[in-house]
Amino acid sequence: MSSRPDILLITLDQFRGDSLAAVGHPCVRTPNLDALAADGVLFRNHYANCAPCSPARASLLTGLYQMNHRVCRNGTPLDARHATVATEARAVGYDPLLFGYTDQSIDPRGVPADDPRLRTYEGIAPGFAVHTDMAEPSPLWREWLAARGVDLGSGVHDVFRPRGSGRPPAGPHREPPAFDADSTETAFLTDRMIEHLSARDGAAGPTFLHVSQIRPHPPFVVPAPYNTLIDPAATPRPVRAASREAEAAQHPYLAWELGRIRLSSYVYEAPGLGADMSDEAVATMRATYYGMIAEVDAQVGRAVGFLKRTGRYDRTMIVVTSDHGEMLGDHRLLGKCGYFDAAYHIPLIVKPAGGTPTPGRVVEAFTEAVDLTPTVLEAVGAAVPPAMDGRSLMPFLQGGTPSTWRDAVHWEYDFREIGSTDIEDRLGLTVDTAQLAVLRDRDFKYVHFTGLPPLLFDLRRDPGELENRAQDPDYASIRADYAGRMLSWRMAHADRTLTGWSLVTPGGPTHVAPDRSGW
Q1: Separation CA 193–CA 431 (nearest Å)
Q2: Known Pfam families for this protein (predicted)?
Q3: Lowest-confidence region among 7-16, 115-124, 310-319
């Protein structure tokens, strides 16, 4: 096998880390992802470093924590000075090609004021060439649907309306949309990837493809047979308090979120708040979501099957992960927000080029999205820039275990709303104090808010994160210890672009590589 592997980086949007059969989910069906894990390495405790989409993908593609890349919300520009997995792979001879989207707003400095890229948050991360742009509302997919005779409707979301229904259901449902299972966005993008690779037969040089799939991102709807694949009665019950009021009592920030998440953002034209869904409605939504996962799994299977049939599989490093998770009714929330595990725990499967000496290995160590870029860069023979916060997972892929590794995971969430005074009016926060940071290990989770009281969860006694112990005198020393650890983590990961250099040593300029040994 060539020392220069092909790279296939697949992201599945809003995919919960518990939603794989390979990790013991009771009803989800993921045979293709499970088979890939059996050939590679499954990282069971993998976490996003921020949310929503733009910040999460910024961390994944730059290897930087949010406190360093500073993509705070969808629409916050990515500073042009930051390296990405694509810029560094391109520097060593790869041509990173995007199928989908990266949700990175362009740095507005240095571009004309009338540049159309300044009107969208769904720009392309530096270093990627674009094969198929799937920025919403995905016009290429919609044109393809129309050519196949699908009625798109008059509104931008009408393609997701229940098929044959005179009016939308009043809440979560399992009705199929206007298009069939061969016409999903996932199928369309998989077709484009296969067509591209087929056209490259005999072409010189390794490939680097980033296939960024939109599903199982809302709206929660999926064609037959996936819409009825999962029985709602078989889905796990949500982890939540007995009422919205009881849930809101945990923290002022949580109360604010519970009053603003509209169900219509997740289910076609559904009225009301997500926080007020019944157990039956949540079960129906979950069954649909798991059906969406099965549809995505089938398309991953198509892509992997093509690689195998054409002799590419062995020489390809395949990475499958997500940008962030999905609350899916836990704590009466929907989407990706706040501090709960469900929004940040995500899947990670890596099948190295040439295989691994430990196929089917399940790594229990904590890993983070920032680790992906250093891992891929090591695989392609590119240096990892000193500023990057992540650490290569290659030792795990090669059958070993690093002598030092992090004992906790960290994530950040910035809930500022540019152009709105809602945060200031309801929570008394300024734009730059509307943020939180999380330190989570196997025993405790500490949540630090810039302008609000902290939270502390004893995960050994309360894995559902229902009881805040931050003000409990019996936990005072633990809270202080975790606050100190949070500060140490942030200090250790301040920007290191040039901090390893010294120009005043007797022998001239000296450079020391950053220490990534345990943080």
Answers
A1: 41
A2: Sulfatase
A3: 115-124
In degrees, to the nearest 5, what angle opens at C-alpha 351 toward C-alphas 348 and 355?
Answer: 155
Burial (CB count within 10 angstroms: exposed 0-12, middle 13-18, buried 19+), residue 228? middle
* pLDDT one-digit tens code per residue, 283-317: 999 999 999 999 999 999 999 999 999 999 999 99
CA atoms of 250 and 93, how far apart (whole Å): 52
Please tell me the distance from the alpha carbon of residue 363 to that of residue 397, in angstroms, as a whole number. 10
Residue 322 domain-assigned (yes or no)? yes
User: Cα–Cα distance between 70 and 76 in angstroms, integer?
Assistant: 8
- pLDDT score, position 170: 83
Whether 455 maps to a domain, the answer reads no
- Report the length, in residues, of the chain: 519
Which pairing describes strands 444-449 and 348-351: parallel, antiparallel, or unpaired?
A: unpaired
pLDDT, average across residues 135-148: 95
Do the beta carbons of residue 457 and residue 467 sit within 8 Å? yes
> Any idea which residues carry the catalytic annotation?
53
What is the DSSP pairing of strand 348-351 with strand 41-47?
antiparallel
Q: Which domain holds residue 321?
A: 6-401
Quick one: pLDDT at residue 1?
A: 42
Region 406-428: what's the mean pLDDT?
A: 94
Contacts of 54 (CB under 8 A, 6+ apart): 71, 73, 74, 75, 76, 103, 104, 105, 121
CATH number assigned to the domain comprising residue 322:
3.40.720.10
- Are residues 75 and 55 in contact, defined by beta-carbon separation less than 8 angstroms? no
Q: Is residue 474 part of a domain?
A: no
Q: What is the pTM of this model?
A: 0.96
Smallest CA-to-CA distance from 392 within 369, 412, 414, 372 is with 372
248, part of any domain: yes
- Domain total for the chain? 1
Which residues partner with 132 through β-bridges?
99
| DSSP, residue by residue, 322-386 | -S----TTGGG--SS-SS-GGGTB--EEEE-TT--SSTTEEEEEEEEGGGHHHHHHHHHTPPPPT
- Give the sheet arrangement for strand 455-458, strand by strand: 50-51, 409-414, 435-440, 444-449, 455-458
* Residue 91 pLDDT: 98
Which pLDDT score is estimated for 502?
Answer: 86
Which backbone phi and psi does 283 adopt, to 5 degrees?
-65, -40
